[in-house]
Each structure stands twice: as structure tokens, then as C-alpha cells.
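agent> call fold_tool(seq_1)
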Amino acid sequence: MFDLDLWREIISALKKNRLRSFMTAFGVFWGIFMLIIMSGAGKALENGVLDGVRAFATNSAFFWTERTSVPYEGFQRGRRWSYENTDIQYIRENVKEVEYLSPRLFGNFQGGTNTVRGERTGTFNMYGDYPDYFKIDRWTPVKGRLINEIDIRQERKVCNIGERVVEVMFAKDEDPIGQYLKISGVYFQVVGVIHAETRINIGGGKKEETIIIPFSTMQTAYNMGKVVHFFSVTSQKGTKASDLEEKLKKILKERHKVAPEDLQAIGSFNIEKEFAKFSALFLGIQVLTWIVGIGTLLAGVIGVSNIMLVIIKERTQEIGIQRAIGATPATVIKHIVAESVFLTVMAGYIGLSLGVGILELLNQILIKASESGSEIFFRSPEVNLTMALSALGVLVVSGIIAGLIPAKRAVSIKPIDAIRDEG
């Protein structure tokens, strides 16, 4: 296969009919090009979706209350009910499968401005949380610190704020740490500017427009009593979030006299199930990509094989002469297969290189768009080494297959018949 004369002969044969060689190679080029582009696009979609949730605890589950749909123990259907502070301690003491538990309160603000600082005003998402929430939904302190257990115990009027809150409520070069915001009539001191590592926002709205205060402070400052609006939990290692979800639903129903068969009384979801759905979706996309790409490539390979048959027909006399002067069938087969592999691999390599180049260009465009603050759902379109090596392997095998059928056809003709052939 490293015979210099062989390769010179192959290149010379391809040059004799450049248009035909180009059109033959184009099918293979297009097949591998589309395989790379579709695979990269699928990976970009996967990165875009999972980057928004990857930092979120994958073993987490979330619970809120809904109206009951079944009458139970004297209570009518359609009853409104809420979790309470006593549920927090009960779960911590009696459900060993729980790793982190964080109750949450939602700011009860019906639109309009809820935050004031001097002449600056804004409307932001507001939550009352425990420090454990930051272990479930990851936030990074850009400045200052996160709220802590001391803030909870002492009911301190402090807050963490998102980056958009800083932009709206403070001057460009002003340090927000230590400053005060008046939130629905109550002053809170800013102790930390926080950056969300995920795009999932339990409660809705943009995460950069979030204000988080200690859970206990929110209950007291806004006269919320002992109500808990929401529970976030993570499961211990070895326990499925879905199993913990069902166990907690059962316990909470028992504690609040909700019918066990009432499927609407507790709303919930867990990230474990969502990740499983995403994984199945992206696996399906990758499989579909390979099916379409391989199908397109196969069409190109069939084209190569057909053209090689035409070439063999045109060179019947030449092959006959080679056989007559001592060329073995193996030599003829090697020549034809080498020509087919060369044509296939060359076209495929160009398609592979162009596809990777376009993906890299797209990646640079997406990076700049992301830096400008645009919401990007495609991230890092890429083709990994395994994918590239697999594609090259497919090309080599395809080239061999494309050349074998014409090669066998060539050696099946007797030399004397081939010499007599007039084309």
C-alpha cells in the first residue's frame, strides 16, 4: 500500500476525468460533512441544556401544596392547606434518607415596585431560604458572603442579591456590600452579591433578578406566621430521589390529614427524572444523527462503487494486459481497492475538516454572543476524539467495501477476454 508507483498511477487515473472524480467524491464528502455538523449541533444543544442544570443537585426533589381533590377526615374537597415549621424538624429527625432540607418562602408581592433605594426602584424575585438551599441550587458569591445559620437563628435583616439587582439599584462603580435596600417597607443590608450557576429557577423569573433573605427573617418581618411555601430536599447517597419523593409525600399527607389517594394535593418534581429524560432525548438525537449520517455516507459509498465499476469497464483491456504480463489477482484487487479507499478517505477527510472548522467558527460566534449577555441555548458545538476516529474508521471501511465489488468483477474476467474487449 506504500508503493509510490501505485499511488502515482492512482492519482493519474483520477486526473484523467476530474469532473467524474469530483462528483464521485462529493457524495462521500457530503455524508461525512453532514454527520459532523449534525453531531456537533446535537452536542451543542445538549451542552446548552445541561449547562443550565448541571450544577443543580441531580438527587433533588421539590414539593409544594395544591388544593385537595378528595374529602378526608371531615375536610371537604378543595381545601387549601400549607406546610408548617414543625414539618421541618419532623423531616430532619425522622427521614434519614434526606441529605439536605431547605424550606422556602415566596415573596407575596402582587406586581409593582417592591425594592427602593433612594431614587432607584425595581421589581425583583424575593425568597426566604435556609443556607442548605445553596447546596441544592448552586450560587457563587461574587462579593461578600451567602446567608448562614447565624442569620437564620438571629433573624437578621440581611440579603443576598443577584447581579441584575446590583445593576438596577447601584451606580456602576458602587460597592453594594453593606448598603441597605428597602424591600416592601423593610430595610435589609446587602451581605453578598451572588451568581447563579444554573438557569433553573424554582419560582420563576430570571435568577439574576433575585433577592434572597433568611427564611426566619421573612416569616417575622412580613407576618407570615409558621407557614412554609415550599420544600427542597436532596437524597442521601444510595437513595433515589424518586423514592424519597414518594416517602415524603406520604408523610406530609399523614401530618396534614390529606387523603393518601389524593394525587393532586401535593405538587412535586425531581431533577433525577428530568435528567433521565434529557439523557434519553440526547441519546436519541445522537442515534438519529448517526443513522442519517451513515445513510447519507452509504449513498456516497454506493456511488463510489458504481463509478469504480464504470472505471473497470473502461480499463478492461488495461487490466487484461496487466494480467497477461504476470500481474496477480491480488495485485489488481490491491490497486482497485487502494484507488477506492484513496478517493473515499480524501473526500471524507475534507468533509470532516470542513465540518470541524464550521463548528469551531460557530463556537466562537456563540462565545461572543454569550459574553454580550444574550441567552444562548447552544453551547460548545464540538465533535470529540471518539467521534472523529469513528468517522475515519467508517471512511476506511467504506472505501474498502466500495472497491471490493469492482475489484472482484475485474479479476473474474479472463485475461484473453479482457484483451479482446473493445470497451
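agent> call fold_tool(seq_2)
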Amino acid sequence: MRDHGGDLDRARALYGGTDWIDLSTGINRVPYPVTALTPHAWAALPMARDLEALEQAAGRAFGTAGTVVALPGAQAAIQLLPRLDRPGRAAVLVPSYNEHAAALAAQGWAVEAAPDIAAMAGADLAVVVNPNNPDGRCWAPATLAELAGRVGRLIVDESFGDADPSLSLAPALPVLGERVVILRSFGKFYGLGGVRLGFALAGPETAARLRVLAGPWAVGGPAIAIGHAAYCDAEWQARTAARLCDDSARLQAYVAAAGWPAIGATPLFVTVETGDARAAQDRLARARIWTRAFPYSTGWLRLGLPGNRDEWERLVVALSVGGQAVLHNSDRAKFST
């Protein structure tokens, strides 16, 4: 098994308890409000018109005129993409979400770790996560568009990008053609990871091949209904993006006050340098707060954003040396209840 966040089973086995705050995944802890679904969504095979409506709504939200392919999570797209081309040399910008390299290697690709964009030139396939997980690095769309012309195929994983549309390559997709595929996640920004919904944005020929590889009824009726409602809700999207950006800045201030400066951040997580990540993770775990440490770093710890006032209180107490909450009254009213 590859190392991932969200492994609360391990946390509970090590520390006990059930009242955990899971900050290990970077998933929005104030999820989109799901209303009751129709019996049709649960009982019938998904209809083509409903899937098309979802993909059109998602495309409008992403700001793209490219073809949008709904899949059972961005992870499903990661598993399919190595099968689009004959295996060759793949460059993955590191550090990165570890499933990209693993999926490519499993399909026979020779995977190289690229420390920067310049090192990716000439690769048959290049993978960039933007914003990057876990260090929060970002690249301008113009930089990635230029890279697309220097590699055989470019994969841009925008799973953490919903709160900052200015970073997205999606609007330029029709100009970039078939050599670029963009991945988007539904579960992170909308806080509904269990729905298992994601998208690949691509040129029409590449999109058609991905549909064949995914097979029929790749996305279930409940995911189609929930996703369609969420992507049509522009007011919720704008309000949530603003809140996440504010809360990310606030979290950076709190961890810095605890002696853990941020080495990178997005509106969905903050990654800090602790000096001893396992000790820092243990400190928070004893307060039933689960975070993400990384096997390749002794100091990095990633924290998602708490979801409501009580969760913020618990985190601030756990971070404070004296065990006293330092959550200011001016902040309390800003946090979700």
C-alpha cells in the first residue's frame, strides 16, 4: 500500500478514540449541502442526458470549452492516463502526489523525478500538479502552455485548484489540442470525497479514448445528481473559495506562532516545517487531530483546514505550548459554526 492521508484506521489503532478531526487529506471540512436524491438516482442506471448535463455544468465551472469526461474520482483518471500512449519516458515534477509515478510505472513507463519544469523538456509524458501537493508550489498557465510544446503529452493535475481559477490551464485547452489533459477533483473543494467524482479535460479525440477505457456507467447516479447541483451553485462556490483562502491564511499564522513556519500552502492545506514531523504528528494525534507526514521528509507536516469553531479551538489548544486556546474573539465569528 502506498502512503496516503485519510488513514484514520491507523490513527485509531495507535491512539484510540473516535472523536477525530481528520486534517490529513486536504478535503474541505464544510462540505456542499447534499439534499435528498430521487429514487431514480439510486435505482436506475445513469442516463446519458444526465451525465452530459453534469459534464456541461462542470465545464462551465472550470471555464473551459474543452471536452469534459466525468470519472469516478481524479484517481480513476490517474489510472487510465498511462494507457493513452505507448510507454516511454515520463517525467513527474517532484515532490508530488505519489499515485502519478506509481500508475505510470505499473504500465511500463520509465519514470523520472524532475526537480523543476526545465528538467521535463523532451519527455514523452510530463506530469505537473498545480497547485502542487504537498508543497503548494504553483505555475502560471503560460508556463505550462509553453511546457506542453516541449513534451509529448502534458498532464496537469488541478485537484486542489478550484479556489483559484487564475491558475487553471482549462480555458486554454481548446488551443492546446490533444497533447494536454487536465485533471479536476470534485471531492476536495466540495468536501465530498466519498462521492468519488472527478474529471479529465481533454481534446475530443483523447476524451473519446478515455471514455472507452473507463467503460459504460463509470459514474453512478448519486454522484451525477450531487455533482450537477454543486457545479450549478455559483454562489456557494464563490463564498467557499473566499472562506478557504481566509482560513488558509489564518492557519498559517497559527502554525507559525507554534514555531512551525509554512513551506507552502493552498486554500485547502498548509504544509509546515516542524523539525520532527513524527513528533509533531504525535503531538496533534494525542488531541485526536490527524495530520499527514511524508516518508521522504523528516520535517514536513501537512494540515488541512478545520471546519468549524470547535475544530479550530481544538487545533489551537493542541498547537499552543501551554495548552491554552489563543483563538482571538475577532476570529471566532469568522469560523463556521
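agent> summarizing second result for user.
Residues 234-257 form the longest helix (24 residues). The chain has a mean pLDDT of 94.
agent> awaiting next instruction.
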